[in-house]
Write a structure and sequence with these properties.
Organism: Aquabacterium soli
Order of helices and strands: EEHHHEEHE
Structural class: alpha+beta
Distance between the termini: 21 Å
Strand order of the largest sheet: 2-4-3
Protein name: YkgJ family cysteine cluster protein
Radius of gyration: 16 Å
Strand content: 5-15%
Shape: elongated
InterPro entries: Puta_zinc/iron-chelating_dom
Number of strands: 5
Amino acid sequence: MRSSIHIVDVDRTETWTRYRTGLCDRCMANCCTMPVEVKLPDLVRLELVDPFEAEHEAPKQIAKRLSKAGLIEHFNFKHEIYTLGRRADGDCRFLDAQTRRCTVYDKRPGTCRKHPQVGPRPNHCPYGQRS
């Protein structure tokens, strides 16, 4: 029997699989190894920033605090986009290493909620076997 799982390179979008219903059911969470760009409301929903801080603190100061804590790895000042920090293995900090499931699914960022409709290759997913 042929397996529908194949090796992909998340950085090479031409290796990605066209999204179809049920694809995520057996996925190894490869999308959770890509950098996750978030906005301030996402950080509030994730409870990394409290609403008062979001309203009264400059985004640059928030970025500085989150970066120092290792919660973000980059901040785009021009567009006020934060890139969440990842673990040493490249996985999203909110991905459970054993189950390969999101630990903050109900609070997940907009980027994750909209995947794969938006992203580097819309309607495609870096689905495949984790190497």
